[in-house]
Amino acid sequence: MQAMPEITARRSLIGLSREEMGEEIAALGLEPFRAKQLWQWVYNKGVTDFDHMTTIAKPVRKLLEERFTLERPVAAKDLLSEDGTRKWLLSFEDCNKAETVFIPEEDRGTLCISSQVGCTLTCTFCHTGTQRLVRNLTAGEIVGQVMLARDALDEWPSTEEGRKLTNIVLMGMGEPLYNYENVAKAMRIIMDAEGIAISKRRITLSTSGIVPEIRRTGEELGVNLAISLHAVTDELRNEIVPINRKWPLKELLQSCRDYPGLSNARRITFEYVMLQGVNDSDADARALVRLIEGIPAKINLIPFNPWPGAPYLCSSNNRIRQFSQIVMDAGYASPVRTPRGRDIFAACGQLKSDSERQRRIRPS
Ligand code: SAH
Ligand code: SF4
């Protein structure tokens, strides 16, 4: 009997580091400069078809196409909010799903990307936290989110002036520092000046406080750091950000004080969700400024975004204003984050995919 034609799983080039691309090119017997050309076609020009790689000879393109794809994650849904925020529900090869959100503002456009499907942590105010971890995203899936957004916004080459997508925040689904290796690899690809070229100054990584990885993030990646603080006593933080039981406030704040490259020009952002009657009193505000004393910082007050079954209410506007005033009087910038994309469930803490459920109903 004739053998069935082999269905070879071609590998997507998206997510390969410079070194890996170099190795693949060498394995094909091609000269090293091809790796650089390929890198630029993939990550800077964002081509989706090998035939568009016009500086590469046709037979070489064919060779590449036989072995690789240029596939991005598939957008299973593409939602546009009335305020211009756009959310993509991405479907990965194994049908797991995660979300990416684009938030256009006057002076910048920020892409909020996910690092995991679900989250192992269980912060009580967070919708993602109710979805158990399904898996870490690969570097390719993390970079793929940026590529998909560039595709959708028609913004290749990445380095052209006037791009709408200028900033990246790792504030989507998941705890990025529990997926450090993939996140770090993805960030190096995204920051590469001959590729997507979004500089470390325009990237912010948000963590709930995985202390041992915070220093590494500063030393190895140098991106901006945001800390999901949300409470000023260990007692409350243990309850609402349970990772605090492992790394309490004292250790967390020490790791912030030690964050490499910190200065007034490069401040740490402390995120603080405003939960009515829970963490929003004047006394909390005063304790907050005492806690972060000496750390170049700004405090981002995030009005709580509700989700079905959430056990909290958002603090009133007056309360938020008063809290913010106390923080500002102590010399810190304290912007109140305007909720964006609430109508499409794209705001902070509202992201949740149905990967968990899908997984359960899939026959094993
Ligand atoms: N896991 C990381 C990054 C993702 S969450 C972290 O926790 O930092 C991005 C931010 O939204 C975090 O500060 C998170 O605490 C906050 N957040 C979560 N749920 C929220 C909600 N329902 N309303 C407002 N902010 C929320
Ligand atoms: Fe996970 Fe961050 Fe949500 Fe906490 S706030 S459950 S760490 S995604």
Low-pLDDT ranges: 357-364
Number of separate structural domains: 2
Strand arrangement across the biggest beta sheet: 3-4-5-6-9-10-11-12-13
Q: List the secondary-structure elements in sequence, H or E.
A: EHHHEEEEEEEHEHEHEHHEHEHH
SS content category? alpha/beta
The CATH architecture term of the largest domain is Alpha-Beta Barrel
Task: Specify the CATH class of the largest domain.
Answer: Alpha Beta
Give helix % range: 25-40%
Measure the end-to-end span.
31 Å
Average predicted confidence as pLDDT: 92
Instruction: Give the CATH superfamily of the largest domain.
Output: Aldolase class I
The small molecules bound here are:
S-adenosyl-L-homocysteine, iron/sulfur cluster
Q: How much beta, percentage-wise?
A: 15-25%
Major beta-sheet overview:
9 strands, mixed
Q: Given the structure, what is the number of helices?
A: 11
